[in-house]
Amino acid sequence: MIDNAPVGASPEPAGARRIGRYEAYVVVFAASAITLIIEIVAARILAPHIGVSVYTWTSVIGVILAGISLGNWLGGMLADRAASRALLGLILLAGAAATLLILPLAQLAPDWVSQAPLLLRIVLLTGLLFLAPALVLGMVSPMVVKLTLSDISVTGNVVGRIYAVSTAGAIVGVFLTGFVLIQALGSRETLLALAVFTAMMAIGTGRLWQIPGKLIAGILLLGALGVFTWSQQSFASGCIAESNYYCIKVWDRELEDDDPVRVLALDRLVHSYSRPDDPTYLHYSYQRVFAAVAEIVAEENPEFSSLFVGGGGYELPRFFDAVHPQSSVEVIEIDPQVTATARTYLGLDRAPDVVTINEDARMALPRRRADSVDLVIGDAFNDLSVPYHLTTLEFNQEIQRVLAPDGIYAVNIVDAPGPGMFLRSFVHTLQQTFNDVAVMPVTFGLDFQDRMSILVLASDETIDRAGLNSFFRSVRLRSEGRVVSDRDLADWMALREPVLLSDNHAPVDNFLAPLFLKRA
Asked: Residue 474 in contact with residue 467, Cβ under 8 Å?
């Protein structure tokens, strides 16, 4: 059994004291919760330096698991040699120090690994920041088991309960971080709160006040780390807001023509250049092509309805609202904080007729009436970070359902069309749903080997290729910018066999991996 005042069943190290069952549960619950909170926060800390991708999450999960595994092993060895309350308290104090140290290291470590190849850089940076706290906190459970176990005949029961409580703590930590802490406190402030809480738990559990020398040493260590953390401006993330999705940054700058613009960056990617006082300003070429598509739709129906999947800087919704005042504009943007930022800093507050739904498009679209939209603009792909569930056959079928019979679905994607497996598969998947699919490289042709924006249009009616090509000639785009002929598109598609993207199988990250590595 587990007893609140357990009696040792085996010789104890000198000065060792046991802990009761409920205290044991609290300690392992908290230690596991803290570990998982650090794991979830890790991606937010790393995002400004290496972005958020499948490689980032793979490294975070791998490093945290490696730390926990090593911590369990070392903690078990240490528990057999010198288990005591004081040692448990010192382990927790070391966990607090390692957690606090993440903040200054996040400012310094990226420069230390900047010359390494990208994938190695991601793993090294993740390890430098997060291996130590996971390892130290991983030592807690075996130490608690040793201090709690009073009868070897119930070892299985004791260990099972402790690890069950530990897992419960991890679960609570995951949900608490994702649903509350990051948005309420911010990632850096969350880490600071964890360090303070862990230090307090160390003093209480280890009864360090009874050992003045160790208590003073621990306080001095944490104080020195605190000063070091503050000196490195560890809380200066640059975010004007931190949502559950992005670190959001906004600043003003002047372009080469000395015209001022306002820049929106989500994590490490500049997402938009806009002028809050001029809703007709469109910085990117692909945005002007979207504007041309809207012109073609408006010629037939000035009161057309448009639906944007992805809001970002809201340049195009504001443009549509200003240039086509008879039309209706609706935006599905997953992040409410991005929408709030656009209202406060990017001029969206001056476009009151733009309606926003803050929800994932896969959840919002099924509630829309069939045949209710004339133009759907897909602009939710964040550079090389692509939400795969918005590329699949099932999603395309939902888009087709909400589109009017002659409606158009226009999407901006990034790929290197030469190798272009993502573009090929995306086009191939659209062709399974829509009667006509057109591809428009905004700058170079389909043989281009580097990343660029490509617009893809899909409709059940024939797309006005001549009108779009006329637009390409009328604006300052590179001469290669044009709608690819059906024959050229078919020849290009035949060079490599595309993959049908479905909810069950959409290896988008794999297709874009070469671009991700080349960017390094």
From this structure: no
Question: CB of 390 within 8 A of CB of 361?
Answer: yes
Contact 6, 23 (CB under 8 A): no
Is the residue at 257 inside a domain? no
Helices 21-50, 118-138: axis angle to 10 degrees equals 170
DSSP state, residue 258: S
pTM for this entry: 0.81
Are 222 and 356 members of one domain? Answer: no
Domain extent, residue 107, equals 21-231
**Cα 61 from Cα 55, distance rounded (Å):** 10
Number of structural domains found in the chain? 2
How far, CA to CA in Å, does 325 sit from each of 133, 304, 404?
A: 56, 10, 20
CA 67 – CA 312 distance, rounded (Å):
37
Q: No. of H helices and E strands in the chain? A: 18, 11
| Domain of residue 110, CATH code | 1.20.1250
Q: Give me the tens of pLDDT residue by residue for the chain, a chain 520 residues long.
A: 444 444 344 444 433 457 888 999 999 999 999 999 999 999 989 987 887 778 889 999 999 999 999 999 999 999 998 888 889 998 998 999 899 889 888 888 888 988 888 888 999 999 999 999 999 999 999 999 999 987 777 788 888 999 999 999 999 999 999 888 888 888 888 998 899 899 889 888 888 766 666 556 666 566 655 655 565 555 555 788 888 888 899 999 888 766 789 999 888 788 899 999 999 999 888 888 889 889 889 988 999 999 999 998 999 999 999 999 999 999 999 999 999 999 999 999 999 999 999 999 999 999 999 999 999 999 887 666 788 999 999 999 999 999 999 999 999 988 887 778 999 999 999 999 999 999 988 776 676 666 778 899 999 999 888 877 776 666 554 444 578 889 999 999 999 999 999 999 999 888 887 777 666 5
Residues for the chain: how many in total?
520
Q: Are 330 and 358 in contact (CB under 8 A)?
A: no
DSSP state of 484: P
CA–CA separation, 438 and 88 (whole Å): 65
CATH number of 440's domain: 3.40.50.150
| Residue 141 Rama label (left phi>0; alpha psi -120 to 50; beta) | alpha
In a domain, 278, yes or no: no
Give the phi and the psi of residue 418 in degrees, each rounded to 5.
-55, -70
Q: What is the CA radius of gyration of the chain?
A: 28
